[in-house]
Amino acid sequence: MLPDSKIGLASIPRPSRQLILGAAIGYGPEKVRVFVESLRASGFKGEVMILIAIQQFRLRSFLRRYGVRTQSIWHRRSLFRSVNARRYQKYYKYLFARRHEFDHVMVADVRDLVFQSHPFAGMTDDRRHYFLECNRVEICNQAMNWRWVTALYGAKANVIARRPISCSGTTLGPTDAMLQYLGTMAAEIHKVHWRIYRRIGHGYDQGIHNMLIHTNPALAGVLEENNRHVATMQLEGQQAYKLDDEGRIRTAADRIIPICHQYDRFPEIREVVERRWSGGR
Questions:
Q1: Sign, CA torsion 201/202/208/210
Q2: Does domain 17-278 match CATH 2.30.40.10?
Q3: Which residue in 91, 103, 196, 120 sits closest to 154, CA to CA?
């Protein structure tokens, strides 16, 4: 566990029964170093599986040093849906085949996420946990999120217009609940016509994620306030965070958040975090 953690050892689940799923297609080792080094330093001993492209030999070798499993897929942006969208089906198949091996599962972005304490501590109940972005911003008031949901759902988007934004980059829960979430996401993504996803860009899975978690009772879960277990940082703004002498990200109220997402949006924070985990490389 990292220094200054408030989490007791008793609250950390059994190490062999947790899984983290991510995707790093198109990234070199320098883009995933913070993720894997900070994760292993957090005390996490469970399994990590990251999707990579077939030709990413250097990345595969790098991840192997940290005990990370990889699954290679063939991907050409001009031929397929974005990796952001395709990952749900890949995750679902991987987890379904090994569903009896894990108690809890997290789906996490890889390029812009740093772990500051154990990712599952305090999160091993029987519910899905969805993590909100800036608590002050509704879906209809954030241009990109509103563009995604209106392009996907038309007038139906008004149903969630005033709901808070949940980030699809981090979701966790017990295995069966996460299988249901991943399967539902994959099925909904499959319905999207190619003309729509070509028009609105790679992040449209965020629009689907928000529509489903706010309207589908079968996917009910806990909507976690931002800056508690996860800090999704971009919409909050740099003024909401500060760095301590050890390079850890804290809230303005001096609290260390276990998982910080989108830290790279702020150059001053990114430089310190990357220096801490990358030796200045």
A1: negative
A2: no
A3: 196
